[in-house]
Amino acid sequence: MKHLSPSLWPTFALTACLALTACDAALTAQARQAEEAEAKKGNVAADVVAKDAPAEKTVVASEPEAKVTVSADTEATVKPEALDLESINFLVKKGKVKNAAELEKKLNNPKEKLNTIDVDGDGKIDKIQVVEVQKPNDVKVFELHVIPSKSKSKDDEVVVAYINFVPDVATQKLVVTATFAPIVIGYDTIVYDYYVPIEVKGGAIVVVDNSPFYGWLFLASRPAFVGVFVYTAPAPPVIIIEHGWHHKHKGKHKWKGKGKGHHGWH
Fold first, then answer.
1. In the list 25, 53, 184, 222, which could disulfide-bond 180, CB 3.0-4.6 Å?
2. How far apart are CA 221 and CA 56, in angstroms?
């Protein structure tokens, strides 16, 4: 057996290294070609499945319809003088009404001249319905709803004012505030308020005032008031039906109506 000369060992090592490197490159190339071939087969199979399968619909979720927000300036169409809110608040303050039903009656009485609102512009004064909202801590809110005379429908009603009754136990005062709703021009600049002393007895609010209105307002277990608006229907036409009358004269002679066509008084 021939032995390699020591002087040739570096050359032999370099040659062997190059041969091994070339072999590794060849193996890597073969592996890459095999992976590409498998990938092509997979793509072809996927294409076949996609062609055979029904087309999938793409659903685009529509955005929720945006709510139209109308600014206060745009909504404000009712003049404040169309509702005498100061006098309405005064009626409550001075006990001129005993409860919400009487207040509603006065609001809709043309002789009181408290309301001249015409939201639908038909030339007729619209009715006002008082709707009470009872909140925690004995807070009461009267909402004044206007029912258009043209439609006479609650679906078309608008709130024009609020009367808030807020007991302040810390200061022992009932704060009463009357304000307009955003539909009224300058609603955020007009406030009518006052306060009356209260006491808390057995957890109940007692207003220190002789007005019967407050006694009704804080009556225990009283249901929230919801007024009933009534538009007076025109009176039906009067139909007069004449009937024949048989009248007896005094004396020997008797008179009777003759014929079927004679009617009326004789």
1. 184
2. 61
User: 261, exposed or middle or buried, with CB in 10 Å at 0-12, 13-18, 19+?
Assistant: exposed
Establish if 113 belongs to a structural domain. yes
**CB-CB contact of 197 with 210 (8 Å):** no
Q: How far apart are alpha carbons 134 and 140 in whole angstroms?
A: 5
Residue 251 within any structural domain of the chain: no
Domain membership of residue 182 as a residue range: 73-166+174-196
CB atoms within 10 A of CB 75: 15
- Structural domain tally of the chain? 1
pLDDT digits (tens, 9 = 90+) for 136-150: 999 999 999 999 999
Determine the Cα–Cα distance for residues 127 and 235; give it in Å rounded to an integer: 19
pLDDT score of 154: 83
Is the CB of residue 144 less than 8 Å from the CB of residue 130? yes
- What is d(CA 132, CA 146) in angstroms, rounded to the nearest whole number? 14
Neighbours of 202 (CB within 10 A): 6
Q: Do the domain assignments include residue 189?
A: yes
What's the mean pLDDT in 82-87?
Answer: 98
Residue 94 placed within a domain: yes
- pLDDT one-digit tens code per residue, 8-62: 444 544 444 444 444 455 545 555 665 665 555 545 444 444 444 444 333 333 3
pLDDT score of 254 more than 60: no
Using an 8 Å Cβ cutoff, are 99 and 213 in contact?
A: yes
Residue-level pLDDT at 115: 97
pLDDT > 90: percent of the chain: 52
